[in-house]
Amino acid sequence: MIDASMFKKVLKGAYANLENNKQMVNNLNVFPVPDGDTGTNMSLTVKTAVEEMSKVTSDKIGDVAASMSSGALMGARGNSGVILSQLFRGFAKGLKDVKEIDIDSLIGAFELSTKMAYRAVMKPTEGTILTVAREMNEFAKEHGKSYSNVEEFVSHVLDAGEKSLQNTPNLLPVLKEAGVVDAGGRGLLCLFEGALKVLRGEEVIFIDVEEVEKEESGVKGFEIDSSDIKYGYCTEFLIKVHKENLKYESALTAALKDKLTPIGDSLVAVHDNGIIKIHVHTNVPWNAMKMAATCGDLSKIKIENMREQHNEIIVKSEEENKKEEEKYSSEEKDYIFIGVAAGSGMSKILKDLGMDYVIEGGQTMNPSTQDFLDIIDNTNGKNYILMPNNKNIIMAATQAKEISEKNIEVVKTRTIPECIAALMVFEPDSSIEDNAENMSEAMEEVKTGQVTFAVRDTSIGEKKISEGDILGILGSDIVADTKDISEATLSLIDEMVDDDSELISIYYGEDVKEADAEKIGKLVEEKYSDLDVEITYGGQPLYYYIVSVE
């Protein structure tokens, strides 16, 4: 039997195990690009569930489960996080009137959990976390009555889940091509593994190392002119060393110091029991991460722009006696637009086109359901249009619409170019329903391509990709794989342009020099002289270029 106190311990253990393994889950991303964030999204979702659950003083299982569900619902990030929040929601419903959790109550909770998750997805795809959850539930229903021990029962449910997970590539061809199992399914099993450890009396400890003090790292603060900051990004992360490299931990740390020294300063590299902690000031944080990724799995990644921080401190110092501007406007508006973007340039573009609020996020940093609700609840709009601008944020935006009582439509934009096209056709005198329909049609007229780098060696079909390759991605296809950013970008554009094309828009990221972007623009203009070509600063991280053709 599991009482309320033990239930809290089980959930905390489940969360700790997922947090410890989130990078492993992230690495199961089908594309070897730096935006695999399934593990991160699931971990952040469970974190809010644990935080809400920890506030409950009641000794009733139902109260603890309800708070867990509420936290997961509000903190859900990414498609995997939203599905997980629905699994939690169904599980909590199943435990509503339970005094102590036994095998019978677990069987009922698993069934409601699976039903709730499937209902949340308009077109459920088999070979995903949904399949793993369903087949674990089916095992529980079929065999649960033959067990008398909760620990043994959960152990065998987990075994059924592992079997289901290993079969996901047979259900989803894209997984088989990439040679991976489903990331969401693996994340779910990480939760069960942590829960089982607690049931067995084990303590699940978060993997971490002691924080390096600022004095040790050479960080002196910002009492200097920002123009004197040679290296602008304070970059920190942990490396969980691969098992085969554990005996070389000291040598790896020394080698990383040698590699990172030429690209930065204020370098600290320390190791402890299989974990290497890196702190460096650099202008190329992603290069630092690529070097480190050869040694193990990265986690606890933090990148801060010290020049912006310095400017913010100066501004606050100058205005310390002035009232800080309100974050939200109290003005009543017929329409309020809420979008998501990464990069100062992208945010400015959207705001110039009428976007009222831009949530910082996108690849690797999906906003939560609560992020949308915070704006909705604190503003005064008759109608709200949410534009997620990323396929992995659509479900969080949709969940916000379902939770809120305000009049909301979600225009399911998957990219910033789609969002721009949709905003261009907005009619303030039309109904929200008509606008949502027209905006959805407009976004489908835009093709979006992206240029980034491969974070690992892999094979997709017959295509062999090496770590560090520059990839041109169109939709769900890698259409360019080279060693050169310009070459990949030009090849991508060639794949995108057809006889109906009229405009090519190229948005360059934070790691691209304006001169390099202009060079590419001139080459494109020469090749496609009958098309309009626009070069714009987007400032997006990770992606050298985002290209739209319409």
UniProtKB/TrEMBL annotation:
It comes from Anaerofustis stercorihominis DSM 17244. NCBIfam families: YloV. This is DAK2 domain fusion protein YloV. One of its GO terms (biological process) is glycerol metabolic process. Residues 5-197 form the DhaL domain. It comes from the Bacteria. InterPro entries: DegV_domain_contain (IPR050270), DhaL_dom (IPR004007), DhaL_dom_sf (IPR036117), FakA-like_C (IPR033470), FakA-like_M (IPR048394), YloV-like (IPR019986). SMART domains: Dak1_2, Dak2. Keywords: Coiled coil. PROSITE patterns: DHAL. GO terms for molecular function: glycerone kinase activity.
